[in-house]
Design a protein that fits this description.
With about 1500 residues, the chain is of the alpha/beta class. Helices cover about 50% and strands about 10% of the residues. The longest helix has about 45 residues.
Length: about 1500
C-alpha cells in the first residue's frame, strides 16, 4: 500500500507557521493571544485570504487547517457577518471553515449559536449560490463545498438553528414540484395530506408578496438543485478528459440524495419528488456512469437506488413486510397491464399474461422495445411518470431512457433479506483493496465514500441492523487487509526458475499449502440456492519452532482462517518495498475466508475438542478440515461455469490465521444476520427511541404507565438524615415519630398517578403543599439466624441527591441514562441499582454488560461485597480469571460451587438429624432431605408455635420460648446464649430467625435438586444459566458472539445494566437487548440502565474513514444524548483535588466535589518536591527538533520524553512510590520512545525502577493514579488532543498531581482547549521544584515551600539537576550504609578471651563472615533503605558500582539517546508487552535471590571447612 497521506503534505514547522502570511494576518486581526492590538474589521482581508490563499491553492487542507485553527470563523467571519452586506466570498469562507470543523471532528456550530439571528440569512445566501451555480461566478469545486455544507446541515437535525431552516425544504409544500397527475395520485393515497394541502393553499392566498417569494424559493429549492445537478452531469462527455471537480460535484450530490433518503423526516416528502425526477435512471444512463472515473459514482448510485426503494411506508414510517412489498409490486404491474391493454392493442398478450411470467427485466424489455419513442412516452405519461405530449409533439427523451424508466420501475426485485442471506461474510480480494469501500488508514476526510452512515435516525430496525452489519463487516475487512499484507510480505513470495511460487521468508501467521481438496458440497436447504455447507481439507507442513507449531496445532473449532492464491512476478532476491502497491508486488490473485472444523488424525477423522489429551501425530504434515463460505462458493462456481474465471479452489497456496482476540468478526456478523432473519422484537417502549423518532423522554420512568409507587430502598440510606438530604425537592413524612425507630432500611412511597393526569396532579400538589410529599416507612429486616454470617452486608456510601435520583430511576421500569463524569461513583451507583432490583424483585433476572473485562470485574467485585446471595451470581466469558477473589464465578465454577455447597448443606442436615435423634439416612440426597424437613422439622416448629402462643398469648413469658424451642442442640455451635431471656418479643424474633436459617438450608437444597438429576457438566451449566442465576455478567463482545447459543437454551432476563455505555459500539449495545426470544410477540425487558460518559473517548475505530465519514465511533449512548433522551448527570466527583478537577469540570453540568476531597488528609497535603499540584511545563525543541515522525502517524518528541523521564526519576529520588506514578502520552510513538528512555536511564536502577504504567491516554481511560506525567508530543499541529473528549480523559486521570509537558505556544491558541489551557497558563510555564522536601508530604497544600523555588529552565537543565541530585542521594545513602556497617563490625567483634589466642582461631573468624552476621548485615541494610524503595539488597554492589563505574555512569547520565523507540509494536500488543515486562522483572528478582542464596551456601561451606580445620588443629 502506498503510505502517502491523501490530501496532506508534511506538516509545517513552527517557524513556517509563524512566518506564514495567514498567521501574521491572524495576529493583526483576530488571534486570541496576539501581543499586537487588533485592527478593525476589513472586508478586503476576507477577499484576499479567499482568493489568494484558498482558491488559488485549491482549498489546500494545510491552508484551511491553519485558518480554522487560528479561530478565523469564531473571531472574524461570524461576528462581522451581516446578511444584507456580506459578500459571496464571506459566505463561502464561512462554509469552508464549518466544513473543516466537521472534517476535524470538533464542535462545528458553536460560533453560529453565539449569534443565531444571522443564520437564516446565511442559509438563504447558501441556497441561492447552490441553485445559481456558475451564474453566480463560482466553480464546480466551490459548488461541491456548498453541497458538503448542506450534507452537514441535514445530518445536524438536533441543532435547533439548523432544523428550523432545513425542515422547510423537505416539508409537504415541496410536492408543488410534482407533476399534476402524480400530485393528485399521492394526495389521493394519503387523505390526511389532502387536508393539509388545502390549508397550505389557503395560507398562500393570504400571504404577502415577500412571504410568497420566500415560500416559493424554499419549496422549489431541492427541485432546482436537481436541475442544476442534471446540467453538470450532462456536461460530462462520453470520451475525452473530464474535470475532477465536475466528477466530485456529482459524487457529492448523490451523497446528499442518499442522506435525504436515509432519514424519515427528510425522506417522507422528498422521496416522491426524487422519484418524479427519475434521478436513478438519469444517473444510470449518464456518460459518467460509463467512464472509469465514475466507479465511485456508480457505487454511490447503488446505495441511492437501495434507499429509494427501501421497504418502508413513507407516510407512516412503518417497515413493510415481504408480503406488503409483493402487493405493491403487483399493484404497479396491474396498472401497467391495464394501461397497455387500453393504449396498445399490440401488447394485448402482455396485458393478459399472469404477472409472475412477465415481471422480469428480460421479459419487460422484450415487450416494450417494440414500441416507438413517442408511444413509450405516452405510456409513461399515462402512468404519471412524465408530462403529457401535445398532439403531434415528439418526445424530448431518448428511447433508451424511456425504456429504462418503464422497466426499472416495474421489474421484480429481490427482497433485501434474500440479498443479505446470499452475501458472503468473508471479504475477497475485490473488496479488500477497493479504496472506495475500504479506504486506507490515511483517509483525510476530504473525499466522498460509498459507505453507509450512522447518524441520528434510522428508517427501520432492518435499516439499523443493515447499516451496522455493513460497517462492522468493512471495519473488520480493513483489519484483515492489514494482517494479510503483513503475513504475505513476511513470506517474501518470489517466482522460481520453473515459474512456480517460491517463498523466501516465513511468517508466524501464514504457511504454504501443500495440498487442498474440496471433500463435501452438501445439497441446498429448501428455498436456498447455495449449498448447505462446503467442506475441504487443507494440508500444511509445520516445520516450525515448537511454540509456533503448537499455535497452529491449537487452532480450534470455529476459528477463522484465510486461503490465498499468490502468483508472484518478482525474481528471487528482489527486495520488497512496503510503500509500493501490495497486489502488484506479491502477485496476490484470490483470497477466501474459511472456518476451522478441526485437525484430522492419522485415520482422517476430525480430532474432537474435550478434556482428553489430543493424540500426538507423527511427522510435520498436518491436515485441517475447514468449512468454506457456501455463498462465496456458489458465486465462484457460477463464474467458473460461465468461463469467466478458473476454479479458484484449485489454486490456493497459502493459508493465513489471525489472533483469536481479533478474529470474532464472523460470529458477530452471523449474529446480526440472525437478528435480521428473525422477527426482531424490541420492547414497544424502546422501538421509536432506538430509531430516533417520537418523544425522546417517552421511555423515562415518569412517562411509563407501570411506574411503581412504593419501593424498598434496602441499605441505600445510612440514616434518616441522609434520606432527608437526598430528597431536597420533597417534603418527608415518616410513618413513625419515634426517633429510635427511624432507622434504615426504608420503604418510600412516591406520589404516582396515571401518565395523563400526572402533570395536573403535580401542579395541584405544588399549589397546596409547595413540595411533593414522600411517605417513608422504616422496616426491620427479619432475623436471618444466630450466626455472624447471617447478618446482612450493608452499603457504607453516603450517596448524593443526584446519585439517589439515578438509583431511583434505575429501580423504576423504563430507560435510565446516567452520565457519570470522572470519579463520580458510576460503579457504586450501578451496584446499588443492581442490589435494590435484586431485593425488590427477587423473581427477576438482571443482565450486566460492559465494554471491557476490567470494568466488568470491578463491578462484579463490588456486587460480591453486597447483600446478594452468592449462588445467584454468574460471570460469563474468559475475563473472570482476573477477578480479585478466590471464588470462581464462571459457569463451571458456579456448578462446582453448587455441588460443593450441596455437600456442605447435606452435612448440616446430617448434623441436624443427629441433634433431633432421628434415625435413617436422610442426608443422602436433596430429595430425602426435603422429606426430612417436611415430616420432622416443620411438625416440631408448628408444635413449638402452638405451645408458645397458646401459653403466652397474654403473659408473654420469655422462659417458655427457651423451654419449648426444639432445636437447641443444633444451634450449640452458634454464639451462646442463643436466647437472652430478657423479653418475649426479642426471644421470639431470635427463634424465628433460627427457623429461617433452617428453612433456607432446605430451600437451597430444593433448588440444588436439579443438579442431582442432571449428570453432565454442560446440562448443569445450562440449568444454572437459565434457572438459578439472578445476576449474569458478560462483556458486550461475549453477548454478540454467543447470542445464538443463549437463545437456543431459552435464556431470559428482565433488566439490563450497561456500564461504559459510551465506549460500546452501537451494534454491540443493541445486541444484548435481544439475547432472548420474545414471549407471545413481546419482549419481556422491563428496565434498561445505561451508565457512561459521552464527554470521554468513544469506541475505538481503527480506520479513519469509518470513524469520520460513517460516524461509526458514535455509541448508542451518545446518539440518545444527541436526541435529547433525559439523563441523570452525576454532579460530584471524589477522585481528584478540587484544583485539578477545575481542568475538566467545565465540560459538565455543575460538576462539584464530594465532601471527602475537602476532608481527607491526602487532599490537604502538598506534593513534596513540587511548588504546584498541577502545572503546564513548556518544552522547546532539543537540538532544533520538536516532534518527529519516523513512520506515518507515529509521532515522537525526544525533548518531552527525556523531560518526563527526568521528572519521574526526580520523584522517585524524593521517595514517591513507583506504583503511584503513571506516564501518559497522546501517541503510540511517544509511548514507545518513553519506554526506551526509561529502559536506558533508570529501569534497571534499584533506586528508581519503572513507573506503574507508560501508556497512551486512550488506553488509560477508566483508570487513575495519584500522580500523572502527561506528554502532548505535538509541536507543529495540535493533533487529536483537539478532540475535547480526549482532553477530558487526559486531565481527569490524576488524583493528587498532574504535570503536563507541551509546546505552550501551540496549544494555547486552540479554541476547543481554551477553558483548560487558560487555567493551566495561570501558573508559570517553567517547572518549579522544592528539592529540600521528600515523600511523604509534610507541607499543606496552601502553604509555600521553604526557601526559593528551583526553577527548571529546560529539559537539559532538568536532566543535569536529576543527575546531580541522584549522586547526592547515592552518597548520602552510602554514608548511612557505611556507618551502619561500622556499627555492625563493632558489635560483631568476638569477646576478649582469657586464654592466649591461637593463630588459626584468631585470624580466621575475623576474615570469614558467618551466616548470622551476613543475615544481620542484610537486615541492617534494609532498615537503612526505608526512605528509598527498591534499593538492592547487597550494599556492597551499590558501593562497588559507585567506585568502579563512576566515569561510565557520568557519561550514561549526560548523553542523550540517539533516537530510541523509532519502531514499536501496535497498541493491541501493549497488554502482552506489560505482561512480559512483569515476567522479566519477576525473573530478575528470582535470579537475584538465587545468587544471594548461592553466596550464602558458599559462605556456609567455607565456614564449615574452617571449623573442621580448627577442630583438627585443636
Amino acid at each position: 500500500m502506498s503510505t502517502k497521506k491523501k490530501g496532506m503534505g508534511q506538516a509545517p514547522t513552527v517557524e513556517q507557521i509563524n512566518a506564514d502570511i495567514l498567521t501574521q494576518l491572524a495576529s493583526r486581526y483576530w488571534a486570541p493571544h496576539s501581543h499586537i492590538p487588533r485592527l478593525p474589521f476589513e472586508p478586503k482581508v476576507i477577499e484576499d485570504i479567499y482568493h489568494k490563499e484558498l482558491l488559488k491553492n485549491s482549498f489546500s487542507i494545510r491552508r484551511v487547517m491553519l485558518l480554522e485553527f487560528s479561530q478565523y470563523l469564531e473571531n472574524y467571519l461570524w461576528p462581522n457577518y451581516n446578511p444584507d452586506k456580506a459578500s459571496k466570498t464571506h459566505v463561502l469562507s464561512m462554509v469552508v471553515m464549518i466544513n473543516e470543523k466537521f472534517r476535524e471532528s470538533v464542535p462545528p456550530w458553536e460560533a453560529c449559536k453565539a449569534h443565531p439571528q444571522h443564520f437564516p440569512g446565511f442559509f438563504r445566501q447558501i441556497m441561492n449560490l447552490c441553485v445559481e451555480g456558475e451564474k453566480s461566478g463560482i466553480s464546480h469545486k466551490e459548488e461541491s463545498l456548498l453541497l458538503v455544507f448542506l450534507i452537514h446541515c441535514f445530518n445536524s437535525l438536533e441543532v435547533d438553528i439548523i432544523r428550523e431552516q432545513v425542515q422547510r425544504l423537505v416539508s409537504l409544500p415541496m410536492w408543488i414540484c410534482l407533476l399534476p397527475g402524480r400530485l393528485e395520485m399521492e394526495l389521493k393515497s394519503y387523505p390526511k395530506y389532502k387536508k393539509f394541502w388545502n390549508i397550505i393553499k389557503k395560507n398562500d392566498k393570504k400571504a404577502d408578496t415577500q412571504t410568497k417569494q420566500k415560500n416559493e424559493t424554499e419549496r422549489h429549492f431541492l427541485s432546482s438543485l436537481l436541475k442544476r445537478f442534471y446540467k453538470v452531469l450532462n456536461g460530462v462527455s462520453e470520451k475525452g478528459s473530464v474535470a475532477k471537480s465536475q466528477v466530485q460535484y456529482c459524487e457529492r450530490f448523490v451523497e446528499l440524495m442518499i442522506d435525504l433518503e436515509a432519514q424519515l423526516p427528510t425522506r417522507r416528502f422528498f422521496n416522491a419528488v426524487m422519484d418524479d425526477a427519475h434521478v436513478v435512471v438519469q444517473c444510470r444512463l449518464s456518460n459518467l456512469a460509463k467512464r472509469d472515473e465514475g466507479k465511485l459514482f456508480n457505487q454511490l448510485l447503488d446505495n441511492l437506488q437501495f434507499y429509494a426503494g427501501f421497504e418502508i411506508s413513507d407516510s407512516t414510517g412503518t417497515a413493510l413486510t415481504d408480503h406488503e412489498m409483493t402487493d405493491i409490486h403487483y399493484d404497479r404491474m396491474s396498472s401497467l397491464q391495464r394501461a397497455a391493454f387500453k393504449l396498445f392493442p399490440d401488447l394485448k398478450r402482455f396485458s393478459m399474461t399472469n404477472i409472475a411470467s412477465v415481471d422480469t427485466r428480460e421479459t419487460l424489455v422484450k415487450h416494450f422495445e417494440k414500441l416507438s419513442t413517442t408511444d413509450l412516452h405516452k405510456f409513461a405519461a399515462h402512468l404519471f411518470l412524465l408530462p403529457s405530449l401535445d398532439e403531434g409533439e415528439e418526445s424530448p427523451h431518448e428511447k433508451q431512457f424511456l425504456l429504462e424508466l418503464m422497466v426499472s420501475r416495474h421489474e421484480r426485485r429481490q427482497s433485501q433479506i434474500e440479498v443479505l442471506n446470499e452475501t458472503p461474510l468473508y471479504p475477497t480480494e475485490l473488496i479488500l483493496w477497493n479504496e472506495n469501500i475500504v479506504p486506507t488508514e490515511y483517509f483525510s476526510g476530504d473525499g466522498c465514500l460509498a459507505l453507509p452512515k450512522l447518524n441520528l435516525q434510522m428508517l427501520t430496525l432492518h435499516d439499523y441492523l443493515l447499516r451496522n452489519f455493513n460497517l462492522f463487516r468493512l471495519e473488520s475487512t480493513y483489519e484483515i487487509r492489514q494482517d494479510v499484507e503483513d503475513a504475505i510480505h513476511r513470506m517474501k513470495p518470489w517466482i522460481a526458475e520453473d515459474g512456480s511460487p517460491y517463498f523466501g521468508g516465513w511468517a508466524r501467521m501464514a504457511q504454504p499449502i501443500t495440498a487442498f481438496s474440496v471433500v463435501e458440497v452438501a445439497k441446498p436447504n429448501i428455498g436456498e440456492n447455495h449449498p448447505a455447507s462446503v467442506r475441504a481439507d487443507v494440508t500444511l507442513t509445520l516445520n516450525l519452532r515448537p511454540q509456533i507449531k503448537e499455535e497452529w496445532q491449537s487452532l480450534r473449532k470455529h476459528d477463522v482462517a484465510f486461503l490465498a492464491t499468490v502468483r508472484p512476478m518478482k525474481k528471487i532476491g528482489t527486495r520488497y518495498d512496503r510503500k509500493e502497491h501490495f497486489i502488484s508486488q506479491v502477485g496476490l490473485v484470490y483470497i477466501r475466508g474459511c472456518e476451522i472444523e478441526g485437525m484430522l488424525d492419522e485415520e482422517g477423522r476430525v480430532i474432537e475438542e474435550g478434556p482428553e489429551p489430543k493424540p500426538v501425530l507423527p511427522g510435520e504434515a498436518r491436515t485441517y478440515r475447514i468449512w468454506v463460505d457456501p455463498n462465496q462458493y456458489q458465486q465462484d462456481m457460477e463464474k467458473t461455469a460461465k468461463g469467466d474465471t478458473e476454479d479458484v479452489y484449485e489454486t490456493f497456496n497459502v493459508m493465513m490465521r489471525r489472533k483469536p482476540k481479533e478474529n470474532n468478526f464472523k460470529a458477530v456478523l452471523e449474529t446480526i444476520r440472525d437478528l435480521m432473519n428473525t422477527n426482531c422484537v424490541v420492547p414497544e417502549w424502546l422501538h421509536d427511541i432506538i430509531l430516533g423518532y417520537g418523544d425522546p423522554g417517552a421511555a423515562h420512568y415518569s412517562n411509563m404507565p407501570n411506574e411503581i409507587s412504593t419501593l424498598n430502598w434496602n441499605d441505600t440510606f445510612l440514616s434518616i438524615d441522609h434520606l432527608k438530604a437526598s430528597f431536597p425537592q420533597h417534603s418527608i413524612k415518616v410513618t413513625t415519630d419515634n426517633p429510635s425507630l427511624q432507622k434504615p432500611p426504608f420503604r418510600i412511597t412516591f406520589p404516582v398517578t396515571s401518565v395523563g393526569k400526572k402533570r395536573k396532579h403535580e401542579e395541584e400538589e405544588k399549589e397546596t403543599t409547595g413540595k411533593p410529599e414522600l411517605m417513608v416507612e422504616p422496616h426491620v429486616i427479619p432475623n436471618r439466624g444466630p450466626y455472624p454470617y447471617n447478618q446482612p452486608k450493608k452499603n457504607s456510601i453516603a450517596f448524593t441527591p443526584t446519585q439517589i435520583e439515578a438509583i431511583k430511576a434505575g429501580m423504576q421500569p423504563g430507560l435510565t441514562m446516567v452520565v457519570g463524569p470522572p470519579g463520580t461513583g458510576k460503579t457504586d451507583v450501578a451496584v446499588q441499582i443492581i442490589s435494590n432490583i435484586y431485593h425488590n424483585f427477587p423473581e427477576q433476572r438482571t443482565l450486566i454488560v460492559t465494554h471491557s473485562n476490567q470494568a466488568l470485574n470491578q463491578l462484579f467485585e463490588k456486587i460480591i461485597a453486597l447483600d446478594i446471595d452468592e449462588r445467584h451470581l454468574l460471570r460469563l466469558g474468559h475475563g473472570e480469571e482476573a477477578l480479585e477473589t478466590e471464588k470462581d464465578f464462571s459457569r463451571y465454577g458456579r456448578v462446582n460451587y453448587v455441588l460443593a455447597r450441596r455437600l456442605e448443606l447435606l452435612q448440616e442436615v446430617e448434623r441436624f438429624q443427629e441433634s433431633l435423634g432421628v434415625h435413617g439416612d436422610v442426608a443422602y440426597t436433596c430429595e430425602t432431605a426435603g422429606h426430612f424437613f417436611l415430616y420432622q422439622v416443620v411438625s416440631r416448629w408448628e408444635k413449638f408455635l402452638s405451645n408458645v402462643k397458646h401459653q403466652n398469648c397474654n403473659t408473654g413469658n420469655a422462659a417458655d420460648i427457651q423451654q419449648h424451642f426444639p432445636f437447641h442442640k443444633f444451634f450449640e455451635n452458634a454464639p451462646q446464649p442463643v436466647f437472652k431471656g430478657q423479653s418475649y418479643d426479642e426471644d421470639m424474633d431470635l427463634a424465628e430467625g433460627c427457623y429461617r436459617h433452617i428453612k433456607k438450608i432446605f430451600q437451597q437444597l430444593e433448588e440444588f435438586r436439579a443438579f442431582e438429576l442432571l449428570r453432565s457438566g454442560l446440562d448443569r451449566s445450562k440449568y444454572l444459566l437459565i434457572k438459578e442465576a439472578k445476576i449474569i455478567a458478560m462483556t458486550c463482545t461475549h453477548a454478540a458472539l454467543k447470542r445464538r447459543d443463549l437463545v437456543e437454551v431459552s435464556f431470559q432476563y428482565d433488566n439490563i445494566l450497561m456500564e461504559e455505555s459510551a465506549q460500546i459500539l452501537e451494534i454491540e449495545t443493541f445486541i444484548p437487548l435481544l439475547l432472548q426470544n420474545p414471549e407471545d410477540g413481546f419482549n419481556r425487558l422491563k428496565r434498561w440502565i445505561m451508565i457512561g460518559d459521552h464527554h470521554q473517548l468513544p469506541p475505538v475505530i481503527k480506520n479513519m474513514a469509518f470513524q469520520k465519514f460513517s460516524n461509526m465511533e458514535q455509541s448508542l449512548f451518545t446518539r440518545f444524548v444527541r436526541l435529547g433522551v433525559p439523563t441523570v448527570d452525576l454532579d460530584a466527583q471524589g477522585r481528584a483535588r478540587p484544583s485539578i478537577a477545575t481542568l475538566y469540570n467545565w465540560r459538565y453540568k455543575k460538576l462539584g466535589n464530594l465532601s471527602h476531597v475537602h476532608l481527607m488528609p491526602e487532599f490537604h497535603m502538598a506534593n513534596p518536591g513540587f511548588h504546584f499540584d498541577f502545572q503546564l511545563i513548556n518544552v522547546e525543541d532539543f537540538n532544533g527538533v520538536g516532534e518527529s515522525e519516523p513512520n506515518p502517524y507515529f509521532y515522537q518528541n525526544l525533548a518531552e520524553a527525556e523531560y518526563v523521564v527526568a521528572v519521574f526519576m526526580y520523584m522517585r529520588l524524593c521517595g514517591y512510590p513507583a506504583e503511584n506514578i503513571s506516564i501518559l502520552t497522546t501517541y503510540n510513538g511517544q509511548k514507545h520512545l518513553i519506554r526506551d528512555v526509561i529502559n536506558q536511564r533508570c529501569a534497571s536502577n534499584p533506586l528508581i525502577g519503572r513507573p506503574s504504567k507508560v501508556t497512551t491516554v486512550d488506553r488509560f481511560q477508566g483508570q487513575q493514579n495519584d500522580y500523572i506525567l502527561l506528554s502532548l508530543v505535538r509541536t507543529r499541529a495540535v493533533g487529536h488532543i483537539r478532540d475535547v473528549r480526549r482532553l477530558v480523559v487526559a486531565m481527569s486521570r490524576a488524583r493528587l498531581g498532574l504535570y503536563v509537558f507541551a509546546r505552550t505556544s501551540l496549544f494555547q491558541n486552540c479554541y476547543e482547549l481554551t477553558p483548560t489551557f487558560n487555567i493551566l497558563m495561570e501558573r508559570p510555564m517553567k517547572l518549579y521544584l522544592a528539592p529540600a522536601e521528600s515523600y511523604p508530604a509534610q507541607r499543606k497544600v496552601d502553604e509555600q515551600p521553604y526557601g526559593h523555588p528551583l526553577i527548571i529552565e529546560d529539559m537539559a537543565h532538568m536532566a543535569q539537576f536529576v543527575y546531580d541530585y541522584y549522586q547526592e542521594k547515592l552518597q548520602a545513602l552510602q554514608a548511612k550504609l557505611g556507618q551502619q556497617k561500622r556499627m555492625q563490625a563493632r558489635l560483631s567483634k568476638p569477646p576478649v578471651s582469657v586464654k592466649p589466642p591461637q593463630k588459626a582461631t584468631a585470624k580466621k573468624p575475623e576474615t570469614s563472615t558467618t551466616p548470622q552476621a551476613s543475615e544481620q548485615s542484610q537486615e541492617d541494610k534494609k532498615t537503612g533503605e526505608t526512605s528509598m524503595e527498591g534499593v538492592k539488597e547487597e550494599g556492597e554492589e551499590v558501593k562497588d558500582k559507585e567506585e568502579s563505574e563512576e566515569t561510565s555512569e557520568e557519561m550514561d547520565h549526560s548523553k542523550m539517546p540517539e533516537h530510541p523507540g523509532a519502531g514499536g509494536s501496535s497498541d493491541e500488543e501493549e497488554e502482552e508487552e506489560e505482561e512480559e515486562e512483569k515476567k522479566s522483572e519477576v525473573q530478575k528478582e528470582e535470579e537475584k535471590k538465587a545468587e544471594v542464596q548461592k553466596e550464602e551456601e558458599k559462605r556456609s561451606e567455607v565456614q564449615k571447612e574452617e571449623e573442621q580445620k580448627m577442630d583438627e588443629d585443636t
